[in-house]
Amino acid sequence: MLSALANPHRLRILATLKAEGRSYVSQLARQVGISRPLLHLHLQKLEEAGLVTSQLELSPDGKALNFFAVADFAVHLTPDLLVQAAATLSAKTE
After folding, report:
1. InterPro entries in the record, alphabetically (predicted)?
2. Which of 19, 38, 52, 71 is the S-S candidate for 46 at Cβ 3.0 to 4.6 Å?
């Protein structure tokens, strides 16, 4: 979850979804100002981390739209959690 939140694009996506309620991919890409393929990558990471949810719906004209919304989540940081997160970081090479 911390890794997903560490990316500025993902923070903007979460902030936009929180402000707008929910949005489908094309609309969200325009709102955030990134390409749809890049948005898909970030949404996948956010969904894997449990930070967003998605729901596939049909529009009135029959198009399939994947709507995303912010999931109800809370992050409680503790020293132990930070130690666990640090253990997942790659080693620094010099």
Report:
1. ArsR-like_HTH, AsnC-type_HTH_dom, HTH_ArsR_DNA-bd_dom, WH-like_DNA-bd_sf, WH_DNA-bd_sf
2. 52
